[in-house]
Specification:
- The structure holds 2 protein chains of 2 kinds.
- Chain A is of the alpha/beta class.
- Chain A is built from 2 helices and 8 strands.
- Chain A folds into 2 domains: 30 residues; 81 residues, Sandwich (Immunoglobulin-like), CATH 2.60.40.420.
- A 6-stranded mixed β-sheet of chain B has the order 6-7-8-9-11-10, with no helix packed on it. In chain B, strands 5-4-3-12-13 form a 5-stranded mixed β-sheet, with no helix packed on it.
- Helix content of chain B is 23%, strand content 21%.
- In chain B, helix 3 runs parallel beside helix 4 and helix 6 runs parallel beside helix 7.
- Chain B folds into 2 domains: 52 residues, no CATH class; 258 residues, 4-Layer Sandwich (Purple Acid Phosphatase, chain A, domain 2), CATH 3.60.21.
- The chains are: A alpha/beta, B alpha/beta.
- Chains A and B meet through helix 1 and strand 7 of A and strand 10 of B.
């Protein structure tokens, strides 16, 4: 993959390398820690948060009868689609949510129908 | 052999002799230069009809009408700026190819606003959908009702213009868990039938939203069965593949195939792997327009790669 990327002339404009990159590298982990803390503090139980094209937590275990809520925190719409078509949300814009009540036990694999590399799993016991 | 090519009596006529012969014969042969190689395009009478200077069309992409977040609070405004550039062109393009994500959320008013602004160009727009154009309640019904006339399946079609065969493919529907963009068996069968009987010398332009080649799997930037489509195109002498989706320029030439992804008119996205996700990239507002833009494609005579010039809104 890296080789292919090197072959490509990705003409993405990069702004002021050097010092800006150094500052970003030093601040990166700190900013990341704050963001992570904020997300964890705001997240309710039985809630899956969509952030940075990722379902978090990627795997959630709940009891039969639990309602799971997905919330999209990205600036890009996502949806939630079960592989076996048990549930499918509409497109969720920023801060939109979707809830589904799991009436029976089982493992429910799901993905984003727009960005299918995004995957998650609900285990109902 | 200083005179080789000019006075090469052993190997036949050089370029100068051919030209001189033409003058002697009293015929007018019109030449056009592409890629530094001259091509004859026939006698003057025929050549005029064949538009020897080639023709020009535009590629526009990812207008995301309805997007109003931090990366660009006014995606309709920047589309207007891009359209103003088209309107200011000294020679109007023959048509515009739009490689998807016309809207952000497939809402009727987003399509309406886009249509109004694109309509100002006065030229035909050939669309293919992006995944953002297929997320209405009817999962693509809104797009197909508006732009799908005469198309097959989820909106794929082909047409001919100036001797070039154009093929619009749809790789944003029926996506599979863990996978990439998807063409599907039905569309691939249609493509095979569409290309059947076409001469290998026919220049081909393929356009689709998600890149047909895999650019970055981790972010889903590629098409699962894209290789199958590319294999069907291999026998052609000139194939140009125009994509969008990644909101940045990527160009690659592989044999007879030229791959090009266009800039968005709405917001930039990060280079592969350079950010935690491919989401909209927030840049200082004075830099935004240097990362948005549109592409002008000029088709030259002969089996030459198409000339693609990318212009930013800055």
């Amino acid at each position: 993959m890296q080789t292919l990327m090197n072959q490509l002339r990705l003409a993405t404009l990069r702004f002021a390398p050097g010092r800006a990159v150094l500052v970003a590298m030093l601040l990166g982990p700190l900013v990341g820690a704050f963001v992570a803390y904020g997300a964890i503090a705001a997240q309710e139980p039985n809630e899956v948060v969509i952030d940075n094209f990722t379902f978090g937590p990627p795997e959630l275990t709940v009891a039969v009868g639990t309602t799971v809520k997905w919330v999209n925190h990205d600036d890009i719409p996502h949806n939630v689609v079960n592989k076996d078509k048990v549930f499918r949300s509409k497109a969720l814009d920023t801060d939109d949510s979707f809830s589904f009540t799991f009436a029976s036990a089982g493992t429910f694999d799901y993905f984003c129908g727009l960005h299918p590399h995004m995957q998650g799993k609900i285990i109902v016991k | 052999m200083a005179n080789e090519g000019r006075d090469d009596r052993k190997k036949g006529l050089g370029r100068r002799e051919v030209l001189e012969c033409m003058v002697w014969a009293g015929t007018g042969v019109l030449w056009t230069i592409s890629g530094g190689v001259p091509h004859s395009v026939g006698l003057i009478g025929e050549a005029a009809a064949a538009a020897p200077a080639g023709f020009t069309f535009m590629q526009m992409s990812d207008s995301h009408i309805g997007f109003d977040k931090k990366a660009n609070p006014d995606a309709l405004g920047t589309l207007r700026e891009a359209i103003a550039k088209v309107k200011a062109m000294p020679m109007k393009p023959s048509f515009i190819i739009h490689t998807g994500d016309i809207t952000h959320l497939s809402k009727p008013e987003e399509f309406d606003n886009a249509d109004k602004v694109y309509g100002e160009t006065g030229v035909k727009i050939h669309y293919v959908p992006g995944e953002h154009d297929m997320i209405d309640e009817g999962q693509g019904k809104a797009y197909l009702e508006r732009y799908g006339k005469g198309s097959k399946g989820a909106g794929w079609y082909s047409f001919d213009d100036h001797g070039v065969h154009f093929i619009g493919l749809v790789n944003v529907v029926d996506l599979k868990a863990g996978g990439l963009g998807n063409l599907g068996a039905e569309q691939l069968a249609w493509l095979e039938a569409d290309l059947k009987g076409k001469s290998a010398s026919t220049p081909i332009v393929v356009f689709a939203h998600i890149p047909l080649q895999v650019l970055y799997k981790e972010w889903g930037w590629g098409t699962e069965d894209g290789t199958q489509a590319l294999n069907l195109l291999k026998r052609f002498g000139s194939v140009t593949i125009l994509n969008g989706h990644i909101h940045q320029l990527a160009q690659k030439v592989e044999g007879n195939m030229t791959f090009h992804t266009a800039l968005s008119t709405a917001f930039p996205q990060p280079a592969p792997g350079s950010a935690p996700s491919p989401g909209p990239m927030v840049v200082p507002s004075d830099q935004l327009r240097s990362m948005l833009g549109l592409s002008t494609v000029t088709v030259l005579q002969g089996n030459k790669p198409l000339a693609i010039v990318d212009t930013t809104l800055a």
